[in-house]
Amino acid sequence: MSQQVENAVTSSSKRVYRKGNPLSAIERQQSHLARKKETHKELRVYVENELKEQLQLMCEVYGVTQSAMIEILIKDALGKQKHKVTD
């Protein structure tokens, strides 16, 4: 019986969680969006259904998000524009 009492005492003396209370899903999302807003701007657009489907297909092929694909396309267009201006 003395072992049972000792186990009961030692199980309650576990290490305390030191990082504070864990954040809820909503709090984590708000934190993520706040960090994202420091370096990014939101863009809302309407495009033709066919173009949207083609964008989704391109994203699947390249394995990137739609946001990343739009960034790639803008950078590509700016790169082409630079070459035209310098020529």
Class by helix and strand content? mainly alpha
**Quick one: how many beta strands?**
0
Order of helices and strands: HHHH
CATH topology of the domain at 44-87: Arc Repressor Mutant
Helix amount: 55-70%
CATH class descriptor name of the domain at 44-87: Mainly Alpha
How much β-strand is present in the residues? under 5%
Evaluate the radius of gyration: 26 Å
Please tell me the CATH architecture of the domain at 44-87 by its name. Orthogonal Bundle
Shape label: elongated
Which residues form runs of ≥5 with pLDDT under 50? none
The helix tally amounts to 4
* Mean pLDDT over all positions: 86
Span from first to last CA?
Answer: 90 Å
Largest sheet: none
